Structure prediction request, 364 residues.
Amino acid sequence: MKLKVEKASVEKGEGLGWGKSLLVPSIQEILKNDSQSVPERYIQELKDRPLISQNLFDSLQVPVIDFSMLAQKDANEIRKLDLACKEWGFFQIINHGVREEIMVNMKAAMAAFFELPFQEKSKCAKAANEIQGYGQNFVVSENQKLDWCDMMFLKTFPHETRKFNFWPLTLPGFKEAVEEYSTEIRKVSNKIDANLSVLMGMDENGLKRKLGEFQQGIRMNYYPKCSRPDLVLGISPHSDGSLFTLLLQDDEINGLQIKHKEVWIDAKPIPNSLVVNIGDAIEILSNGMYKSIEHRAISNEKKPRMSIATFVMPGDEVQIGPLDSMVNEKHLPRSYRNIKYIDYIRQKFAMKMQGKAHTASVKL
Ligand code: OGA
Ligand code: NI
Prediction:
């Protein structure tokens, strides 16, 4: 009897944390045997392939926000932030206060991990019923197309969510680099959170009061070079399930593209900046005023690209739904239902990354 109960709850996803994903081969390792190969499982359907040569919209730039001006409560910069969240869902921040050395160390730690022999990396491999660790997530069917990417996902805050069995603890400097980087990024995210709270009609602590201590998770994406970047996707179109995400990307190599007014445009790297995007949770809390925009990454022929995405999230048990300050039955009717955050995130991890499909269930 007891066994049956346990099995039923596992099938419903209870007791599993955030979700699971089928295990897939490492694309980085496949390419070690044949650097020119593009296995069938990675070749996208025609309609999903990226148009690599499209640079018609080269002149469009993701808005840049000077973080030091926000700290001074500069009205113009705050207005720019508001517009960026409304019209782009993306912005790049400069003068964010994270020392260059900390970002360089984080990138070096990630690179050192991905350069380890496969056998060593495998010691941190995720299990099928886990989303933390080295491998890939969002794989739910043997038939689905795979992204040209290997990743490592680690939860970093609150402290007790760290699962060190997925961390390469014997790799010199890795733990220190992640700890330092995640701590610094948390300071930046606290400031973003305070600004968004005010823009959404509350005081600076509004979101914190409503959502409790935030969770933080870091996804390190390794995109190997590809002989046919026109056939594959580094990361499929998706929006993030977070409140917001801070991305540290390669200083030189383009890869991230965002869907702006139905067109894919490059988020061209600005050295030492961080790319910030609004995630689904802020879209829901803001009652749709701030958009969680679809984005993707493309691969390239010349060099592997690495990126480090830090997701800032509410606590698992927190109910998210449009804030009172963002609903006005006459002019701004409620357009999302309430949902417990862990239910939202489980739903997201139960699907392939597929644009905004996972937000449909909470839309009214
Ligand atoms: C992500 C993501 C983009 C990139 O990890 O959620 O969107 O450029 N990454 O790696
Ligand atoms: Ni993303």
